[in-house]
Predict the structure.
Amino acid sequence: NKSGKSHDFTFKLLLIGDKAVGKTSIMYRFSDDKFNPSWLATIGIDFKIRTIELNGNTIKLQIWDTAGQERFDTITAQYYRGAMGIMLVYDVTCQQSFDHIAKWLRRIEDHAAEDVVTMLVGNKCDADMRDRAVSKSRGSAMAAQHSISFIETSAKVGINVEKAFYDLATAILTMV
Ligand code: GDP
Ligand code: MG
């Protein structure tokens, strides 16, 4: 913030992307530092809160987890509006989830605020090379093409999940 004084903020973040890419797992890895391979598919919408310190500011991150299923679109559309940051998640072992990125970006354009900060997240980077469908460079190129930031994560092992949320919060903090 411009005054240099510390402030308390609440940032609303939204996780979107195809079903089973790991949105719920990313949220729980960040909020509870846990991974459970047998979570049920998210029904509708759920949220978790974690407070972080960033440049002397106390920031409450309210993380909304949406269901990827098409039939829940009417429920989730209204959550785009209040979001200050969006993680668009795909699965690096699932080509189809990568092919759907353009569709998700259109949804952001249609429903989210114009100044929303969007981050492309390639999850499951712990996967065996033989299971890889999308290389890191293709993910990076896709993000560059749409002028958004990019990171690969593993909710399972706990790679870059902290960094993803801190980077997103940092980007939002420069705008408030
Ligand atoms: P969502 O539908 O996007 O919320 O996805 P979930 O969080 O429910 O995860 C879908 C499946 O992928 C589950 O079986 C998870 O255990 C698995 N999964 C999630 N994140 C990772 C990850 O980082 N690595 C691996 N290998 N599997 C993951
Ligand atoms: Mg889920």
Remarks:
- The pocket of guanosine-5'-diphosphate (ligand 1) is lined by residues 19-25, 37, 39, 41-42, 68, 123-124, 126-127, 154-156 (CB under 6 Å).
- Strands lie at 8-17, 45-54, 57-66, 85-91, 117-123, 149-152.
- The first strand starts at residue 8 and ends at 17.
- The helical segments are 23-32, 73-82, 95-99, 101-111, 136-145, 161-173.
